[in-house]
Amino acid sequence: MSTYPLELLDLDGPLTGEERGIRDVVRELVATRVRPYVADWYEQGRAPVRELAAEFGKVGLLGMHLTGYGCAGASATAYGLACLELEAGDSGVRSLASVQGSLAMYAIWRYGSEEQKQRWLPSMAAGETVGCFGLTEPDHGSDPASMTTRARRDGTDWVLSGGKMWITNAPVADVAVIWARTDDGVRGFVVPMTTPGVTAREIRRKMSLRASSTGEIVLDEVRLPAEARLPEAVGLKAPLSCLTEARYGIVWGALGAARDCLHTALDYATTREQFGRPIAGFQLTQAKLADMAVELQKGYLLALHLGRLADAGRLRPEQVSVGKLNNVREALAIARQCRTILGANGISGEYPLLRHANNLESVLTYEGTSEIHQLVIGQRLTGLAAFG
């Protein structure tokens, strides 16, 4: 009798009934709303983002770890489990929820005025309004401190000019949280996408995250009222704290892609016969499966530990870097190894392996490259910054 990987160490045991219930709701949603269609979305290079946002809003997935304003107020661990299930469907689908909840909504929830929260958060939690988060620029990815997007005062207004690149949800978004340099340092602004001077262009010909909407935002003398600025966002620490929120979701999400690959490889290996028996009966195949299952368990235990720290209010950014560095790196290795078990079938769109592997190449890069997280951890270990 075969055992699925996360059953090996009885990893359901440490979860509460509420956490298991939330996980099961998201798993069922992915099974009915994502899995039957995602291969076609990936092949076509587009997904029904607004329809998915509405579906996610109905079950309280968007900004689910935030409180008030229509948000579910779930635990960080429950949010992580939701990210795992979403990314078991597709990394792009999880990115939709992460960018909406952990970047755009979190920025407004944490740094916005009460008026901004009341205006935007309820409709974003319901999936009626789609948000995006504009920090990365064409020439400034890992070094956001060098951003060139500017915001200058003109009377009581602000005028923004610049550009943002690789912005998830941008082509379909209703609102963007834009970060810009001012005379007083980096500040955040809530920018309706219909504001004159704002244009969004979809990035095409992607080989990864194809079931996700990604775009470039151009800001050409965009005039905003004073109340568009996030009043509590002062300095670069504000957007970086939002990234920490999103990275936490990735720690869990990458495990979903890895789990889906490993389940697929197990099912295939126990039914595919060569030399007169299932390939799962060969020692080399079992060695691959065992090693991957061990790494998946370790990644899950790491994510669960970080979730408990977050729920206790004790999670630190460098701890999230440990999780992101390890879990994405191992998930990508699992996806690649599972592909070898399926042989030529592993590159077919009939199976999710190469889709997950391609997606994880992007996950390895966004929200901080592996090298950046290594330096964050290195700085914590040595007390010396090595970013320059």
UniProtKB/TrEMBL annotation:
Q: Which Gene3D superfamilies match?
A: Acyl-CoA dehydrogenase/oxidase, N-terminal domain, Butyryl-CoA Dehydrogenase, subunit A, domain 2, Butyryl-CoA Dehydrogenase, subunit A, domain 3
The record's listing under Pfam families reads: Acyl-CoA_dh_1, Acyl-CoA_dh_M, Acyl-CoA_dh_N
Cross-referenced InterPro entries:
Acyl-CoA_Oxase/DH_mid-dom (IPR006091), Acyl-CoA_Oxase/DH_mid-dom_sf (IPR046373), AcylCo_DH-like_C (IPR036250), AcylCo_DH/oxidase_C (IPR009075), AcylCoA_DH/ox_N (IPR013786), AcylCoA_DH/ox_N_sf (IPR037069), AcylCoA_DH/oxidase_NM_dom_sf (IPR009100), Glutaryl-CoA_DH_mitochondrial (IPR052033)
Which cofactors, by name? FAD
Which residue range or ranges hold the Acyl-CoA dehydrogenase/oxidase C-terminal domain? 235-381
Acyl-CoA dehydrogenase/oxidase N-terminal domain: from which residue to which, for each copy? 17-128
Ordered alphabetically, the record's keywords are: FAD, Flavoprotein, Oxidoreductase, Transit peptide
Identify the residues that the record assigns to the Acyl-CoA oxidase/dehydrogenase middle domain, covering every copy.
Answer: 132-222
Q: Which family does it belong to?
A: Belongs to the acyl-CoA dehydrogenase family.
Name the PANTHER family on file. Answer: GLUTARYL-COA DEHYDROGENASE, MITOCHONDRIAL
Q: What is this protein called?
A: Acyl-CoA dehydrogenase family protein
Traced from the root, the source organism's taxonomic lineage reads: Bacteria, Bacillati, Actinomycetota, Actinomycetes, Micromonosporales
